[in-house]
Amino acid sequence: MSRTLRIFQVDAFTGTPFTGNPATVVLDGHGLSDEQMRAVAREFAKGDAAFVLPATAPDHDLAVRFFMPGKEAPFVGHATLAVHAVLARHSPQAMRRQSGRSGLVEVRALADGRFAINQPPPVLARSPAPAEIRALLPLLGLSAADLDAQCPPRIVGTASTRLIIALGDIAALDALQPQMPQLAAMSQALGAQGYFLYTRHGARQGCLTESRMFCPLLGIDEDPVSGNAHAMLAVLLHESGLLPATGGSAQFAGAQGRHVNRPGRVDVELALDQAGRPQSVSIAGQAVVVLEGSAVF
Predict the structure, then answer these.
(1) In this structure, how many other beta carbons lie within 10 angstroms of the beta carbon of residue 229?
(2) What residues contact 15, with CB distance under 8 A and at least 6 apart?
(3) Which residues is 22 bridged to in the sheet?
């Protein structure tokens, strides 16, 4: 028996259509098999596909599964913003608790139209060995002189991992020449699924950082705007003493996407305990629905 799916195309971390990071949202995900979800993700291959499912326990309001064309992801920040932008059009709610394969997150609708995802702080993992960095830099079109010595490279995350690399200026960020097949092979050796490169020097007005991210191992050459990576960056900047805190929190805004003509912005807030340790991180941004339709499956 065929069924009709309500499908939306949403641009996240932006208020301007056809910029930011695109995601597909399916409101009627219950009853679909994994293969059917993968088929939808392949059909709408411009971004990740999020499938909204009913809650299965009283500790959450909805469940979401995330699929790339080739695999399932435990959590996707921009697709979560997309889900809640769609839900807000049909049933506005100040806060919803979302369950997924990476656990529970809270998503709040802010008064200015943004949505904020609150989650546990990412885990700082190992620092790559100098020999690993020397082997990696030519694959990005970089030399050691391009790095920002105030924040050495670090792998961050557990289920989803990124190697975060600070660059000394915006010119180095603009001039990156990633060699995708070699970077994919290097990802497996490093234990990092992607590379998030940023600079604190020359970012656009109102933002502390500007960044680019490459995840060829996941089938993503350059990701337009990553909320998850900005949450990782917040923890790393805080540990490095580069993110001043006031009133029990540290905040910054990050720009990304200019290099693929999809500029976006991520607002990040790191909540700290009395000892100054990260307790949670919130990534916030706008999201705009650009297409609404249905499909018979």
Answers:
(1) 29
(2) 113, 286, 288
(3) 11
C-beta separation of 45 from 23 below 8 A: no
* 3-state secondary structure at position 250: strand
| Residue 272: C-alpha distances to residues 192, 193, 244, 249 (Å) | 26, 28, 11, 5
Query: From the CA atom positions of the chain, what is the Rg in Å?
Result: 19
Dihedral sign, CA of 252, 258, 291, 102? negative
Q: Is-contact 235 270, C-beta < 8 A?
A: yes
pLDDT in tens, 15-53: 999 999 999 999 988 988 999 899 888 888 777 899 999
Task: Return the amino acid letter for 241.
Answer: G
Q: Which of helix, strand or coil describes residue 33?
A: coil
Euclidean distance between CA atoms 266 and 91, whole angstroms: 24
Measure the CA–CA gap between 161 and 158, rounded to whole angstroms.
6
Q: For residue 241, report the phi and psi dihedrals to the nearest 5 degrees.
A: 75, 20
- The angle subtended at Cα 238 by Cα 99 and Cα 80, nearest 5°, is 25
Packing angle of the helix pair 77-90, 227-239 (nearest 10 deg)? 120
Residue given tokens 């309500």 in the structure block: 6
How does pLDDT run across 159-177, given as a tens digit for each residue?
889 999 999 999 999 999 9
**Cβ(18)–Cβ(11) under 8 Å?**
yes
Q: How far apart, in whole angstroms, are the C-alpha atoms of residue 285 and residue 14?
A: 7
- Measured at the CA of 226, the angle between CA 65 and CA 85, to 5 degrees, comes to 55
Q: Exposure of 44 by Cβ count < 10 A (0-12 exposed, 13-18 middle, 19+ buried)?
A: buried
Give the H/E segment covering residue 145: none
Angstrom distance (rounded) from CA 156 to CA 164: 7
| Whether the Cβ atoms of residue 54 and residue 80 lie closer than 8 Å to each other | no
Residue with the two structure tokens 């097949």: 181
